[in-house]
Amino acid sequence: MSVMVAQRCLNHPSREAAARCPECAGFFCRECITEHDDRVICSACLARLSVLPEKKRGSRGRLLIPFYLLMGIVCAWLFFYCIGRVLVSTPSSFHEGTVWKRDMLGSGDD
Question: Most buried by CB count within 10 Å: which residue of 2, 26, 30, 97?
Answer without folding.
Answer: 26
